[in-house]
Design brief:
By secondary structure, the chain is α+β, with helices and mostly antiparallel strands. Helices cover about 20% and strands about 25% of the residues.
Length: about 325
């Protein structure tokens, strides 16, 4: 039986639209389509998967319009993580896909994300202190990124070794950040990517103590909204065929700002940190249950699903 993350199990049981999430079309022409993707919906399928994705839902919409055929259907040009919400683009022809992917960094003039992050640990008795960090109000994070054995992006520390006892292979990564709202326990960030590496925002902020709220992979201490608090807010680009400058923006939930202002001094324990819960919050290993929050991140091989979750922009550049 496949292991199911505690956060996923919780959503299966409590999220009203789990498995039935809907997209919203923000723009559509003969070459491309811009949508809003909700949290919980995969962007694209992985090998062997038959679950609904933003791509398949968009294809259903186009089918109802009577515009789907062998040459006109959604093609992937970039992706958002399943639990990341926000603005996303699809090409509608293979020619458009090639042109967009080959010119992504030239045509896209701005991609802004908003992220709700826990403040760095103050000491052993508290997890949040807005003044206890090394990030200024605005600046760049330039730590190189590696992929761990679970294919999760992270910033290796000096002396970290992989399962073979060798230093991790790393790639350059640059994230521009701005603190737009600071509270007693959390901070709301605005971020843009100079490079588009997998899990870049999550890894860069976590490396500086700002783990995203709701981030099970990085062992967040808070999960007030029962989702990863990362939202692709703005996508601005020059149309690859018409040259028209287009901008699309969907705001993150208003509750995030209120949460930051109020603070969460005594948060409810996230499901992945609850001990002795056998309903998806622990995983079975051999003859005992292991606490997910303390697992060794260097001992799992890459699955077909993980391999599918690559950076499509980088893939496009490699095959130019």
């Amino acid at each position: 039986m496949a292991y199911i993350k505690a956060s996923t199990q919780y959503k299966r049981e409590h999220k009203a639209d789990y498995g039935r999430e809907k997209i919203e079309i923000l723009y559509q022409d003969q070459w491309l389509c811009v949508i809003y993707k909700p949290t919980g919906l995969l962007s694209v399928p992985y090998p062997g998967s038959k679950v609904r994705t933003a791509q398949s839902v968009l294809e259903e919409v186009l089918r109802k319009q009577g515009t789907v055929n062998n040459k006109h259907k959604p093609y992937v040009v970039h992706r958002l993580d399943r639990d990341t919400s926000g603005v996303m683009m699809f090409a509608l022809t293979e020619a458009a896909q090639r042109k967009i992917m080959d010119n992504w960094h030239k045509m896209v003039t701005e991609r802004l994300y908003h992220a709700l992050a826990e403040n760095p640990k103050k000491n052993n008795s508290g997890f949040g202190d807005s003044k206890n960090d090394d990030l200024q109000t605005e600046g760049w994070i330039t730590d190189a990124l590696a992929q761990n054995a679970h294919n999760v992006g992270f910033v290796p520390q000096k002396g970290d070794l992989d399962k073979n006892g060798k230093p991790f292979n790393t790639v350059p990564a640059r994230t521009h950040y701005k603190k737009i709202l600071c509270g007693p326990t959390h901070t709301l960030f605005e971020l843009s990517l100079d490079t588009g590496k997998k899990n870049q925002i999550r890894a860069h902020l976590a490396a500086h103590g700002f783990t995203l709220a709701g981030d099970e992979e990085h062992r967040a201490k808070t999960d007030a909204f029962h989702r990863l608090c990362l939202h692709a807010r703005t996508l601005e680009f020059d149309h690859p065929f018409t040259g028209e400058h287009l901008k699309f923006e969907v705001a993150e939930p208003e509750e995030w700002a209120e949460y930051v202002k109020k603070g969460d001094v005594k948060p409810e324990t996230p499901v992945w940190m609850v001990k002795n819960n056998l309903d998806g919050e622990k995983r079975r290993t051999k003859n005992h249950y292991e606490d997910y929050s303390s697992r060794d991140f260097s001992q799992k091989r890459l699955s077909a699903k993980d391999k599918a979750h690559m950076n499509y922009i980088e893939s496009g550049k490699k095959h130019r």
